[in-house]
Design brief:
433 residues, 16 helices, 38% helix, binds pyridoxal-5'-phosphate
Length: 433
């Protein structure tokens, strides 16, 4: 069905402005169907301009952990709006930021005590890289500037974070020569792979500053899962060679894998953690880079030049910090982690029949993440529209069709979402036969 037909009778008057002037992410603007006009959200529902209500399977890139428009978060933002919507963090500090930093330090394991705020996940990762590299510079170790990242990793879209993505990704060839390539290694899934990783990095030790990993699930690189043991192997390697370990919890943090942070399931403590996405419960943009005492201490000096020279204009925005504090209240007061674990069991059961469906290569679940991997990648324009017609918002990419719902989605809605997912995958297989 043509996109114009879909929206013709009810198109809001701003839709034409959107088509002319809004440049959408990851979108071929000539051939992609027009975007769906969203009118409002609540709970696990997106309401389109024509009044259709979609069950949201993505929670806006897995940010809306408590569902949309949660009254407790909305109230906290409204209260902060009247007092102080924004103030620079240069030389000034404010209550929501102070409280949030202290709470994050208390919630994270070990001595991860020092919180540097940013306004997006990619920037939080850039700050983590800067911290790791300068950690060595401040200690007089000059050559250690390279980063080890893993195959199928995704750490953001800025230049330094692009360099951490798997080189087989398109952006690498397109932008070849514009950034310093980093070292890409396979994840150490077993003892032999761990030894191979050690053998690979040993000759380059004098150049390596950090290893960065998305703990337990590699998100935007294909929703690939690994075991806690794999993370413990990486921790052991970093310990043995004095490499800074960065865990990028931007996707996994705040309950997505069934624990507040994925690293808890491995019982490891990285040297730096990056947070973002669900940090504010999806209400506002905020990210954080949290460093251990040992990292932070390397920046303490009588030499001003040893300071961390970074400062996003809107870092630690008080509205966003108030939203994040309210989101953390909800994690403390409400059974969010139990809900995430219950969702894992239900998704596992509901998606299992996909294993026997034609065109399906793999089905996997962890926490509130359900993934059906297809045998071949596709241009999923048709399937996305099919899901909308069926009443769900699901955005397949690469070769996967996945859901990352709000942790609060009630079981009957989750069942309906899973039914739509399976029916869509079956229809896709018939269409491509
Ligand atoms: C989304 C994501 C990022 C980038 O965050 P942005 O806010 O989009 O810049 C980085 N790392 C991981 C693991 C992510 O999922």
């Amino acid at each position: 069905m043509a996109s114009t037909e879909r929206t013709a009778s009810v198109a809001p008057d701003w839709l034409d402005a959107a088509r002319r002037h809004v440049w959408l992410p990851y979108t071929q603007m000539r051939t992609a169907p027009a975007p769906w006009p969203a009118a409002r959200t609540y709970g696990h529902i997106i309401e389109l301009a024509d009044g259709r209500q979609l069950i949201d399977g993505i929670a806006s890139w897995w940010t809306a952990a408590h569902g949309y428009n949660h009254p407790h978060i909305a109230e906290a933002i409204t209260r902060q709006l009247e007092v102080m919507p924004h103030i620079m963090l240069g030389g000034l500090v404010h209550e929501p930021g102070a409280r949030l930093a202290a709470r994050l330090a208390a919630m994270l394991p070990g001595h991860l005590n020092h919180v540097f705020f940013a306004d997006s996940g990619s920037v939080a990762v850039e700050v983590a890289l800067k911290m790791a590299i300068q950690f060595f510079l401040n200690r007089g170790e000059k050559g250690r500037k390279r980063i080890v990242a893993f195959a199928d990793a995704y750490h953001g879209d800025t230049f330094a974070t692009m360099a951490l993505a798997d080189p087989k990704e398109g952006m690498h060839t397109l932008f070849a020569g514009t950034f310093q390539p980093q070292i890409t290694a396979p994840l150490p899934h077993d003892a032999a792979a761990e030894q191979a990783l050690r053998d690979m990095i040993e000759p380059q030790l004098g150049e390596i500053a950090a290893m960065i990993v998305e703990p337990l699930v590699q998100g935007a690189g294909g929703m690939r899962m690994h075991t806690p043991e794999t993370l413990r192997r990486i921790r052991a390697i970093c310990d043995d060679y004095g490499i800074v370990m960065i865990c990028d919890e931007i996707f996994t943090g705040f309950g997505r894998t069934g624990s507040l942070f994925a690293i808890e399931q491995a019982g490891i403590v990285p040297d730096i953690v990056t947070l973002g996405k669900a940090l504010t419960g999806g209400a506002l943009t905020l990210a954080a880079t949290v460093a251990s005492d040992a990292i932070y201490d390397a920046f303490l000096s009588d030499d001003a030049g040893a300071a961390l020279m970074h400062g996003p204009t809107f870092m630690g925005n008080p509205l966003a910090c108030a939203a994040a504090n309210a989101s953390l209240d909800l994690f403390e007061r409400e059974p969010r982690l139990m809900e995430a674990r219950a969702m894992e069991a239900r998704l596992r059961e509901r998606l299992a029949p996909a294993r026997d469906m034609p065109g399906v290569a793999d089905v996997r679940t962890l926490g509130a993440i359900g993934v059906i991997q297809l045998e071949a990648p596709g241009d999923f324009g048709w399937l996305k529209a099919h899901f909308v017609e069926a009443g769900a918002w699901i955005r397949p990419f690469g070769d996967i069709v996945y859901v990352t719902p709000a942790l609060t989605m009630p079981p009957d809605a989750l069942d309906r979402l899973a039914d739509i997912l399976l029916e869509g995958v079956a229809a896709w297989a018939r269409r491509n036969r």
